[in-house]
UniProtKB/TrEMBL annotation:
Domain of life: Bacteria
Name of the featured protein: YhdB family protein
Source organism of the structure: Geobacillus icigianus
One protein family per Pfam: YhdB
InterPro entries: YhdB-like (IPR025431)
């Protein structure tokens, strides 16, 4: 699994680069990441309640963290399997 999209999403979110985050949303093959970005950007642009914006941001960050952990576990397992093959 390629983790570049997750790294970019973290970077763009941290730097408040919403245009680049929108482009990443369209280009990423990960549908879940795309949907989380979409929900966050929609809340950021149209919600007046800050708690909803914060909730969507935390959902995006939790998903990125989860995806990176799963990717790390898969990579570690694959590397271990190839090492002893």
């Amino acid at each position: 699994m390629n983790t570049v999209d997750y790294d970019k999403a973290l970077y763009y979110t941290h730097r408040s680069e919403w245009d680049n985050l929108l482009i990443l949303m369209v280009r990423t093959p990960d549908d879940m990441l795309s949907k989380k970005i979409e929900k966050f950007l929609h809340a950021y642009n149209f919600e007046h309640d800050y708690s909803i914006i914060q909730e969507r941001l935390h959902a995006l960050l939790r998903y990125i963290d989860h995806a990176l952990e799963v990717s790390e576990q898969q990579t570690g397992t694959e590397a271990y399997a190839h090492f002893y093959s």
